[in-house]
Amino acid sequence: MKIFPLPLEKPACGRQGRRAIEHSQTSGIQVRHGKVEGIRTEKGFVSSRTLVNAGGPWAKEIGRWVDVEIPIMNLARTIVVTGPFADIPNHRPFLDDMTLEWYCRPELSGLLMGMGAKPVEEPNIQTDDEMVNKMIDAAVCRIPVLEKASMQTAWTGIRPLTPDDHPIIGPVPSVSGFVLNCGWGGRVIIQAPIAGRLVAETICNGYPSTIDMNPLKIERFTLK
Is 186 in contact with 105 (CB distance < 8 Å)? Predict the structure, then answer.
């Protein structure tokens, strides 16, 4: 398959006089008198009065840099994708067996399956081969024709979840300039547009105007 590169366009942040620093590991956040002053990276200190914690599986660790405990649990889920498999048409609906945390859905000309909700401390994990085998057994038990399918690829990813299964968005009262956008689990790709709008409104105006964000603030856990 030949891939044609898209024409290069100056990023939106560049058009607004901003710059993006990629592939630079962050080691800490500098706070003075309860206010964010910037972040420390391997390429030097970056001054900023606002910091958005959208660290996904690492959001809890980032919060601890400023002594903020974010109630997130990282759960490992394993994904298996079959090769092309004509026995199951790609118009078949999403199938979810909640008793096993197992699901499947069409993926191009094959099938994608997911399984597992194992708590993990370290976000950087390898593919869970044991879970792959369990998933294959579960799949063949529920859809016997899958015994004829081939496995194209597999991986294990992290779903960062909160106790009430809703994300945490908004400023942290104890650290001025520290804004949270985390705890999305596996839904962040779907709901990223509204999340970005809420965070942008909070930074620019001090509050969101699109919807009431109070039910999503971290205070719902810390003030109980």
Answer: no
- Please provide the size of the chain in residues: 224
Domains of the chain: 50-72+164-222 (3.50.50.60), 73-161 (3.30.9.10)
Q: What gap in Å lies between CA 78 and CA 130, rounded to an integer? A: 10
Residue partners of 204: CB distance under 8 A and separation at least 6: none
Q: Which region holds residue 23: left if phi is over 0, alpha if psi is between -120 and 50, else beta?
A: left
* pLDDT tens, residue by residue, 113-168: 999 888 988 777 888 899 999 999 999 999 999 999 999 999 998 999 999 999 99
Cα three-residue angle 61-67-73, rounded to 5 degrees: 40
**pTM for the whole structure:** 0.80
Closest to 169 (Cα-Cα) out of 52, 58, 34:
52
Question: CA–CA separation, 177 vs 38, rounded Å?
Answer: 10
Q: Are 119 and 77 a contacting pair, CB within 8 Å? A: no
Cβ 108 vs Cβ 82: under 8 Å: no
* DSSP code for 51: E
Structural tokens at position 16: 């607004």
d(CA 86, CA 92): 12
